[in-house]
Specification:
Elements lengths: L1 H16 L3 E2 L27 E7 L7 E7 L7 E6 L8 E4 L1 E3 L2 E2 L2 E2 L2 E7 L7 E6 L6 E6 L10 E6 L6 H12 L5 E4 L15 H9 L1 H4 L4 E2 L20 H6 L15 E5 L2 E5 L11 H9 L10 E5 L16 H13 L4 E4 L5 E4 L2 E2 L13 E2 L5 E5 L20 E5 L3 E7 L4 E8 L9 E6 L13 E2 L3
Bound molecules: fe (ii) ion (FE2).
Length: about 450
């Protein structure tokens, strides 16, 4: 066993010496097929709350939005919650705001969103939806108060869908005891893959992921499969199903749209952007982001993380350069403000970049190749959740110098923030057991410890 471990370590280090790695791992090709709906039935009791999901409900981490659907009646529309341990187990009640919507020939159930506020930090709460035999009970743990050396672990997933591959990705993540919250980089149910954007697929997806989303917050980003813009069936309101179903605390960060917002969580400051909303100069998203960066206090939240759907650096021929116009608008701000990490989805494979920037380029100087830049973020494409559209296995050849590691497999990542200077990052491919790491690196914080990380990166070669 020790010999094997040493051999693997040698592989790590030999891999480190190379510039960019295209993994030699070859995933056996097979069709991506959706799981049958009967795998995810509604709860057996009449009108019981279902599709339960939670997300952070304020900017600081003391709020939680609890969302659920009751299929037939408006009630129950109340959350009862209490501290799981300690002397103060008094029960509190919060009424939900309830909505529903029609989409072509589909009518949603009653969709409830209740915001729990002024929760204690770092505390486990039990919450209950419904009463008597329809009641369902769940729990969550609030994050520690924001602080520079507060450890916290995020899961990272994107483009999940609801295939057997999606299930593998999801079950692997759920089996990892480290994840405390999920950074989700967009494309949820893929309902729009079906005729008339069959919104029943949204309901099934809500039930599929409930065993995680009901217990830990998923930080939502909108992708192209959330747009659901279909004028051919007179569905002219972009993001209609997504915005009814997934509420986020956008007003707390002075945003005017749920499609872009920010939160603080433990030692991380997370900015969520929308690749499918206007971001040109003077647009609401541009103006908001411009005012957002000066608010980030790296002494309180050292780790500055951006989530967006369409990657700015992608060496896959699928969706190649779709994120380019947003890169032109925002990359300079990312570099000037020393963003640590940018997570994207959209491309159905995995890729991690070097710390590079292309901000020198302008239309007259012609300097249009990315260069090493210690102030630049690492860009990670993690649209490898396993949805029905299949794998993106057509990488540009040769591998561009900005690409540190890439592999056409499905999987998820874990980001373990240790303190203000170090975070350990791992990527887990579905074909391996969860403890096996297919790509890993230590990230050094750009504000507190902006040293080169190259010696700690280790794309494993199989
Ligand atoms: Fe996408």
């Amino acid at each position: 066993m020790w010999i094997l471990t040493i051999f693997c370590l040698c592989l790590h280090f030999s891999a480190t010496c190379n510039a960019g790695i295209t993994s030699k791992y070859v995933r056996k090709p097979h069709a991506s097929v959706d799981m049958p709906p009967e795998h995810f039935p509604s709860p057996a009791t009449f009108n019981a709350p279902e599709q339960v999901h939670i997300t952070q409900g304020d900017h600081e981490g003391r709020g939680m939005i609890i969302s659920w659907v009751t299929p037939l009646h408006r009630n129950p529309n109340v959350v009862t919650y209490w501290e799981a341990e300690g002397e103060h187990r008094r029960r509190h009640k919060v009424h939900a705001a309830t909505t529903s919507y029609r989409y072509y020939n589909y009518t949603s159930g009653f969709i409830h969103h209740a915001t729990l506020r002024m929760l204690k930090y770092d505390t486990r709460y039990i919450y209950e939806l419904g009463k008597h035999n329809e009641a369902r009970k769940f729990s969550f743990t609030t994050p520690p108060k924001a602080g520079p050396d507060v450890p916290y672990t995020f899961g990272v997933m994107g483009d999940l869908g609801q295939t057997y591959d999606s299930n593998q990705t999801f079950q692997h993540y759920v089996s990892n005891p480290k994840g405390q919250a999920v950074l989700y980089v967009g494309d949820l149910s893929y309902a729009d893959h079906y005729p008339f954007h069959d919104n029943v697929k949204w309901d099934i997806w809500g039930r599929f992921v409930e065993k995680s989303t009901a217990y830990q917050p998923w930080i939502w980003t909108a992708g192209n499969h959330e747009i659901d813009y279909a004028p051919e069936i007179e569905e002219n309101t972009p993001f209609k199903p997504y915005m009814h179903r997934y509420h986020v605390p956008y007003k707390a960060s002075k945003s005017t749209s749920p499609l872009w917002y920010s939160i603080k969580r433990a030692s991380a400051y997370i900015i969520v952007l929308s690749s499918y909303s206007a971001y040109g100069t003077y647009t609401p998203q541009y103006n908001w982001l411009e005012q957002e960066f000066p608010k980030v206090n790296r002494s309180e939240t050292p780790w500055l993380i951006v989530l967006l759907h369409s990657p700015m650096y992608n060496s896959n021929n699928y969706h190649y350069m779709e994120g380019e116009s947003m890169r032109v608008m925002f990359e300079q701000w990312f570099v000037e403000n020393k963003v640590d990490l940018v997570f994207s989805g959209h491309v159905h494979s995995y890729e991690r970049s070097e710390r590079i920037s292309n901000v020198q380029y302008n239309i007259t100087n012609g300097l249009s190749a990315p260069v090493k830049d210690p102030c630049a973020p690492v860009y990670i494409t993690i649209g490898d959740g396993g949805n029905i559209e299949g794998i993106a296995d057509n990488f540009a050849d040769p591998q561009p110098s900005y690409s540190a590691f890439r592999e056409a497999s499905f999987g998820h990542a874990i980001l373990e923030i240790k303190n203000r200077s170090h975070a350990f990052y791992t990527w887990h491919r579905n074909q391996d057991n969860e403890p096996t790491i297919a790509d890993s690196t230590w990230f050094h914080n750009r504000y507190w410890y902006p040293h080169d990380e190259h010696s700690s990166s280790s794309g494993l070669v199989h």
